[in-house]
Amino acid sequence: MTLTLRTRERGVATVTLDSPANRNALSAALVGEVREALAACAEDDTVRAVVLTHSGTTFCAGADLTAPPDPEAFVALMREMVALPKPVVARVEGHVRAGGLGLLGACDIAVAGGTSTFALTEARLGLAPAVVSLTLLPRLDRTAAHRYYLTGERFDAAEAARIGLVTVAAGDRDAVDQALAPVLEGLRRASPQGLAASKELLTATVLRSFDQYAEDLIARSAALFASDEAREGMTAFLERRDPAWVR
Q1: Are 135 and 210 in contact (CB under 8 A)?
Q2: pLDDT score, position 105
């Protein structure tokens, strides 16, 4: 079953997360398809930029707890987004949770609609936003990162823009497309060489962080997922009940 869709218009390729039945959760299959789509865009000289968007009411619900991707594969996807010599623009009109925020952090520009909500829910499951820190911590306001990493609170698009997670908080569907229009027009007018060189400047520090810290964060993530406390948290989530530690 295909979990992504690809289209192209005037030099802009659109990759759509198309697994609404599980809220576009990050399964091994979905991560693999997005990586394949990005590799194809990288090789296509007619593609100037990539828009990452979604079907359904959720951009990405985080890891698919029933079929999670290898942490190495998810880290590779985020790194490939950051290193892609073409800008990646997120178009969000739905909810984003946990690992989905890591995808947003790997994008160069993000526009979110007024119905979008965001949350780093890992701590509530006995986990931590480990590997997604590679893209989030360089971007987020530090005080906000402390709050949302630790509490798992939900926040809206305006707050996401304030703390640096998204570039623009728009209104309804038309407002999202209106906010995207000048961004995409600007990218279409830029030269391929200019875009690649400019993005290289912007992402150099983040890519060094991947090289320095990814292996350790993957190990931390794997250890947390294998723990008894995380198993209880994930089971409670799937059973729609409070975990044992909630008082």
Answers
A1: no
A2: 98
Nearest to 213 by CA among 133, 102, 129: 133
- Residues in CB range of 12: below 8 A, 6 or more apart: 47, 48, 49, 50, 51, 184, 187, 188
Residue for token digits 């402390």?
Answer: 146
Q: What is the pLDDT of residue 69?
A: 81
Determine which helix (DSSP H) or strand (DSSP E) holds 149, and give its type and residue range: helix 142-151
Q: Is 56 exposed, middle or buried (0-12, 13-18, 19+ CB in 10 A)?
A: middle
In the prediction, which pLDDT does 67 show? 79
Number of H helices, E strands in the chain: 9, 10
Q: How many residues does the chain have?
A: 247
Burial of 164 (0-12, 13-18, 19+ CB in 10 A): middle
Residue identified by tokens 């609170």 is: 153
Torsion of CA 102, 164, 201, 103, to 10 degrees: 20
* Residue corresponding to tokens 């947390």: 224
The rounded distance, in Å, linking the Cα atoms of 76 and 69 is 11
CA distance 121 to 97: 7
Nearest alpha carbon to residue 64 among 27, 35, 98, 118? 27
When the candidates are 3.30.470.20, 3.40.640.10, 3.90.226.10, 3.90.700.10, the CATH number that belongs to 1-172+192-247 is: 3.90.226.10
- Low-confidence residues of the chain, pLDDT below 50? none
Structure tokens at 126: 């006995």
